[in-house]
Amino acid sequence: MNNIVPFDDQERMASAIAKSGLFGLKDQTQVLALMAVAQAEGRHPATVAKEYHIIQGRPALKADAMLARFQQAGGRVDWTSYTDDKVEAVFSHPQGGSLKLAWTLAQAKAIGLATKDNWKLYPRAMLRARVISEGIRTVYPGVLTGEYTPEEIQDFRPEPTNISIKEVIEGEVIQEGSGFPLYTPESDGSVKLYKNCVDAEHWEESYFDMVEKIKASKKFSDEEKIAKTQLFTDANKELVETIILKNGAEYDQEV
Predict the structure, then answer these.
(1) Can you tell me the distance from the alpha carbon of 76 to that of 51, in angstroms, rounded to the nearest whole number?
(2) Do the Cβ atoms of 241 and 204 come closer than 8 Å?
(3) Which of 61, 88, 214, 254 has CB 3.0 to 4.6 Å from 147, enough for a Cys bridge?
(4) How many Cβ atoms from other residues are within 10 Å of residue 185's Cβ?
């Protein structure tokens, strides 16, 4: 089958896919880029609509599509456990040998993955995606070419942004002196004193006020807001742990 599609036709397909909203791909440029990858791999460009998600700005190959490619390439999967607590399978391929692999909910909790809603609501599906990705990547990585599942990318920590938090607090006066220090992260990775608060209550109020300013800013995308909130929290980790978490409060990084 000839999967070479002229660029003009790809542009029209990408536009239709993005505008329809049916496949979760809403940016025409991203769809077009995925189509170029698909065509380079010998697949029809339109297959990206059913095989990919865009998560945190990254292309994510769906677990089902990943498994289908593995099986089409001669791979075999035998499921030996499939519960909310443990998913285990044996992956085998003529060129990659055989491997038994398991992911457990206890394992996910131990490395800090199971605190998110998708893990709480769909633990079996999340474990399955992890098993599929790791198993195929280990036994026959040629069908993945560095791709990850949506479930894996959702667990990635957002990459630090190079946009300084100064854009949120532009025009405000930096306060010096003694007390409870509140820091802001700089674009070069350093931190800078934003203000000294008179007591723990004032510090906590100022901390959450800054978080709300980040969330309300129109200068950042949702992904940048999440990343900046994380950077701000990391810059004040010691007092976040001793004041906020000690008091049983929660800090939400979602936007």
Answers:
(1) 20
(2) no
(3) 61
(4) 22
Q: State how far the Cα of 150 lies from the Cα of 42, in Å rounded to an integer.
A: 23
Tokens 């200068």 identify what position?
A: 219
Cβ atoms < 10 Å from Cβ of 125:
15
Question: What is the distance between the alpha carbons of residues 80 and 108, in angstroms, rounded to a whole number?
Answer: 19
CB of 123 within 8 A of CB of 151? no
pLDDT (tens digit, 9 = 90+) per residue, 120-144?
Answer: 889 999 999 999 999 998 999 888 7
The pTM of the full predicted model, rounded to 2 decimals, is 0.54
